[in-house]
Amino acid sequence: MIKKYGEPKHYIERPLCRFDLINYFIEKNDYLNYLEIGVRAPQACFNRIIATHKDAVDPSPLNPGEINYPITSDEFFDLLKDHPEIKYDVIFIDGLHLYEQVKKDIDNSLKHLTDNGTILMHDCSPPTVHHQRENYEDYTTPAGSAWNGTTWKAFVEKRCTNPNLYMGVVDTDYGVGVIKKGSQKIWKNADVETCMTYDYLDKNRTELLNLLSVEQFEQTYKN
After folding, report:
1. What residue ranges define each of the domains in the chain, with the CATH number in brackets?
2. How many CA atoms lie within 13 A of 29 on its CB side?
3. Residue 157 and residue 161: Cα distance in Å, rounded?
4. Rounded CA gap, 89 and 147, in Å?
5. What whole-number distance in Å separates Cα of residue 120 and Cα of residue 45?
6. Helix axes 73-80, 99-111, angle to 10 degrees
7. CA 23, CA 17: separation in Å to the nearest integer?
8. Which SS3 state, helix, strand or coil, does residue 93 take?
């Protein structure tokens, strides 16, 4: 699934990005309704998504005119609390990259996900401890401005506690998490608090995240 552009003799190849995976699920499952939490710059992902209906949620977008819900995700889901019938086929979570907020975004997204729907999440496999810092403005190491935050902790907590989900992370674009309704063998090799430490993640990344290479992703989701 390496993306290629241009004529066959002049292909430009690039690794898969989050929007490639989102569009892959939309095409494979004939999804219609898409929700993106944390849009920021629509051209980065939202505008690249091919879906019949798209909703964008972000309280501080760079291009306000392109966001139909310029509010926080908590405010957005509060609007939906009396409308359980409103469902999305695919939801992409890329808002505030902090554990407590992402945890709420996952729980709220599950309430408004179709039975065959898919949640995708950015930043689930931070490559260094600095990438998963809580303070976005801490530029004290060579990692520079790259910031994955503690999104991964919310993912891991569900991986360790909820047997009624299928979860995996595609090893591209800082780790794109996939959550579907289904079943999984929850991770019990350590207590949840230990699993949510970066040292433990780094030593058990493949198994803890159910980390999939791009090739493994294709095989897992080919049908």
Report:
1. 17-220 (3.40.50.150)
2. 21
3. 6
4. 28
5. 12
6. 20
7. 10
8. strand
Dist. CA 131–CA 147, nearest whole Å? 5
**Residue 137 in tokens:** 């403005």
Q: Structure tokens of 140?
A: 């004290």
For the entire predicted model, the pTM comes to 0.91
Residue matched to tokens 């976005």: 136
Q: At what angle do helices 99-111 and 151-161 cross, to 10 degrees?
A: 50
| DSSP label at residue 166 | E
Distance CA 36, CA 48 (A): 12
Per-10-residue mean pLDDT for the chain, 223 residues long?
41 78 95 97 95 97 91 98 96 96 98 98 95 75 73 98 97 96 96 97 98 89 69
